[in-house]
Structure formats: C-alpha cells, structure tokens
Amino acid sequence: MREERPSDDELRRNFEQELESVSGGGGLTSETGLDTETEEALWAVADAHPNIPDELIEAARRAFAGQLDGSHAAARQAALARKLEQFDRRG
Fold it and tell me: Does any domain span residue 1?
C-alpha cells in the first residue's frame, strides 16, 4: 500500500494506462491514485467497449483534469462542510 500521494506526472501516467486498458476491454487496477470521479468516467468507457463514443473518452479526460486542478476535491470539501453545518444546526 502506498503511503504518499502520487505526483502529477505519476497520476498522468496512471490515467493514460487506465484509459488504454478500459479502451481495450480491460478493467481498472487499484491504488492508482485516481479519484472516484475519474474512475467512474473510466468505467463508463469500459462499459461502452467495443463501441466507445469519443464523448466518453473526452469525458474521462475532463474528469481527470478536474482531479488535477483540484475542483473534485474542492467540491467534496464543500459538500462535507454543508453536511457538517446541517448537523450542527440539528445538534
């Protein structure tokens, strides 16, 4: 089990390997460092094999870009903050 976060270069390499795998009918490997949103987009590509629309490849690339730019993490943090705020109001 990996203890440190993969570098952006490692993430890019992992994403390209996973995209190649699912595009060819394979699955995803674990411990790639890819986030849930990116993995879900890659599974959509896998599910569409062998007739994968370009839009799904583009969606996977957009999802991965959202991981790299931090927007996925920011959205998760905002959702958690909203839940905690609701919990505090009930308390």
Answer: no
